[in-house]
Structures are given as C-alpha cells and as structure tokens.
Design brief:
Blueprint (H helix, E strand, L loop, with lengths): L15 H12 L7 H13 L28 H7 L4
C-alpha cells in the first residue's frame, strides 16, 4: 500500500514519515515514534490487502453517518472506512 503514495485521505502526505509526524505529533500532541516503530507500522500497512474499486455501485449509494454534516462528499478512502473495509 505504501507504493500508492501520496498517502492519507486527500493525498497530502508523501510518505509514512510525513503521516507519523503530522498525525502523532501535530494532531495528537505525542512524540514522534522511533524508526523501529515506524518500520513496524509500515510492515503492518504493507500486509493489508488493497480493495479493488467498485465498478457497480453508484458513488452516492454509500450513505455516510455524517450525511448532511459535510460540506463536500467524503473521499473514496473515507467511504471505505465507513464501510469497515479499511
């Protein structure tokens, strides 16, 4: 999966180090995980299987629990997360 960079919901992270710094440090207020933890997390992400995009469902067929609360339609990754596929 890491080969599909850029990463994250809207593709604003060029690699796993960027995600770890932005999410763990900036958003969560934690400390940057060490290289062994980042590597282990990367290994785990690489073990996940990619889900093929749907070719049959209409884009609006997925109902969001936040429907009406978003100003724009969720990204494909957000819709997959809502479905429990990622």
């Amino acid at each position: 999966m890491l080969d599909t960079a850029p990463l994250h919901w809207n593709g604003d992270m060029k690699n796993l180090d960027d995600i770890m710094n932005e999410v763990f440090v900036n958003r969560m207020g934690g400390t940057l995980p060490g290289p062994l933890h980042v590597s282990a997390f990367g290994d785990w992400i690489q073990s996940l299987r990619l889900v093929a995009p749907s070719t049959t469902a209409a884009p609006d067929a997925i109902k969001s629990p936040w429907q009406g609360h978003l100003r724009q339609r969720p990204t494909r990754a957000a819709r997959l997360a809502i479905q429990g596929l990622i």
